[in-house]
Design a protein that fits this description.
The protein is α+β, with helices and mostly antiparallel strands. It has two domains: 135 residues, 2-Layer Sandwich (Uridine Diphospho-n-acetylenolpyruvylglucosamine Reductase, domain 2), CATH 3.30.43.20; 274 residues, Cytochrome p450 (Orthogonal Bundle). It has 19 helices and twelve strands. The strands form four sheets. Strands 1-2-8-5-3 form a five-stranded mixed sheet, with helices on both faces. A three-stranded antiparallel sheet has the order 4-12-9. It has a two-stranded antiparallel sheet with strand order 6-7. Helix 8 crosses helix 9, helix 9 packs antiparallel against helix 14 and helix 14 crosses helix 17. The longest helix has 30 residues. It is globular, with a radius of gyration of 23 Å. It is a single-pass membrane protein.
Amino acid sequence: MWAIVVGLATLAVAYYIHWINKWKDSKFNGVLPPGTMGLPLVGETLQLARPSDSLDVHPFIKKKVKRYGSIFKTCLAGRPVVVSTDAEFNNYIMLQEGRAVEMWYLDTLSKFFGLDTEWLKALGFIHKYIRSITLNHFGAESLRERFLPRIEESAKETLRYWATQPSVEVKDSAAVMVFRTSMVKMVSEDSSKLLTGGLTKKFTGLLGGFLTLPINVPGTTYNKCMKDMKEIQKKLREILEGRLASGAGSDEDFLGQAIKDKGSQQFISDDFIIQLLFSISFASFESISTTLTLVLNYLADHPDVVKELEAEHEAIRNARADPDGPITWEEYKSMTFTLHVIFETLRLGSVTPALLRKTTKELQINGYTIPEGWTVMLVTASRHRDPAVYKDPHTFNPWRWKELDSITIQKNFMPFGGGLRHCAGAEYSKVYLCTFLHILFTKYRWTKLKGGKVARAHILSFEDGLHVKFTPKE
């Protein structure tokens, strides 16, 4: 027994020494950006994972920028990374997508969402298909023609229920609301009922494992997340198998179209469909529920903004022939100040403060060499607080958006991603938030009770939630 233990220990030490030597001896010709790589395997993951109580760029990144400049190297979750807060560098990397870089996630995220498979990393017809099917069901045309009434009904039902409660924790409750609405569009009304029962908490729990080493050992955060992921995927597989058994494949929902397209697209398999449902479902509800919570948290401290929002929505309501009639697409497009509030919230509290890309070949830029296969982290949130673009950048001021032109916004505001992969669900997020706020400000009063303390690490969370009391207007 001891011989086996000693043998295993020897192998482990030999591997560790080999890994360190490989880590120290990067075999390529060129100059890397300045910085430090931290410890072998772990790198500087723990420093970035440490929560901050500010919505600003994480202190780890700010400290590095102060020491090394706006472009530096590090190691996160076992991978070498170049981090950039430089706007010109970030725009250049975006333009290189499909030529020298590709969309990428750290290994942990890749395994959670199946992104280590080639279908989602491909920049060719597979990506075009994914974007097309997402826009077909969550894009502007689908929202305008079919889905807006369902979003409105979901918001009404939710607020009616919240108004019966002494206190509502907004983040988790909003996640359930958006998850249910999104799943109706994903898998149909009937099938979506099979996906409640705590699945939203399992989805949200996955966030905690994003910046961990992908070591699947019992007791680790990563192991728990993998178990939750498999349970969610098992439910999705049951729905898929039920739909296949019924022979129903139509364009009515996301799943139906994917099944229908399976006959004409060779890359579509059952596993492909399940992974796609899993990834799109997660992306839809998490960003919207977090943004809504941030909006209410900001509004609680800015009664002047609340007053203008109420005026905008009451004017829209009173202009209808039937004040209690449904929201129209034209009314949504007229909610200018509401959109400015959403933009300002996203500017200060980006749900996704950085974008990740992976080099597909060696890159020469700004005098530095970025080796092939390295991850590039574009900290887009740093541009959101640039005083050269935004006056008093740390102040919540929705009125600033009246003065900003479209070119300035396009170059300096990227809450929904950028480059070739501008978020296909951006319009869905805006429509959902505007619809909810319209019903809230025309039908209800609300008061913040407690909470709202932000914890920012690699993700945005609320340490003690945001607890609000909702009351119907007379």
